Amino acid sequence: VIPLKFDLAFDYFNGIARVKLDGKYGFINQNGEVILPFEYAKIGDCFFNYYPIKKDNKWGLADLLGKVVVQCEYDNIEYDIEKNQMRLKKDDQYTYITELIGEYYDRTNS
């Protein structure tokens, strides 16, 4: 059960819940402890065990432990279900993350 002190709360997924407090989003664990501070304008849906996080109008990624694994420096993050990948855009550069190889690689936008 998520405590009522939050403005908005999503269901727990893999032991964490996205919650909103005073207009900012963060994560709590099942004990109600904050594991990702309330400093994000938005947190998207989980994909490949990463959550897109938005801060200062830029996007990054947090993992299921609440650790920021990609800093909020990207203009956009998109999911491509057909290709089984996540695409992060910064200026005219794309970084692709695929579940199969579990690593990042860059490609220039053409």
Largest pleated sheet: 4 strands, antiparallel
What strand order characterises the main sheet? 1-2-3-4
Rounded mean pLDDT is 86
Q: What would you report as the Rg, rounded to the nearest angstrom?
A: 15 Å
Protein model, in words:
The protein is built from no helices and twelve strands. The mean pLDDT is 86. Strands 1-2-3-4 form a four-stranded antiparallel β-sheet, with no helix packed on it. The chain has a four-stranded antiparallel β-sheet with strand order 5-6-7-8, with no helix packed on it. The protein has 110 residues and is mainly β. The N and C termini lie far apart (48 Å).
Give a short synopsis of this structure:
With 110 residues, this protein is an all-beta fold. The chain is built from no helices and twelve strands.
How is the topology of this model organized?
Elements: E1 8-9, E2 16-21, E3 24-29, E4 34-40, E5 42-43, E6 50-55, E7 58-63, E8 68-74, E9 76-80, E10 85-90, E11 93-98, E12 104-108
Antiparallel strand pairs: 1-2, 2-3, 3-4, 5-6, 6-7, 7-8, 9-10, 10-11, 11-12
Which terms would index this structure?
110 residues, mainly beta, 4-stranded antiparallel beta sheet, 12 strands
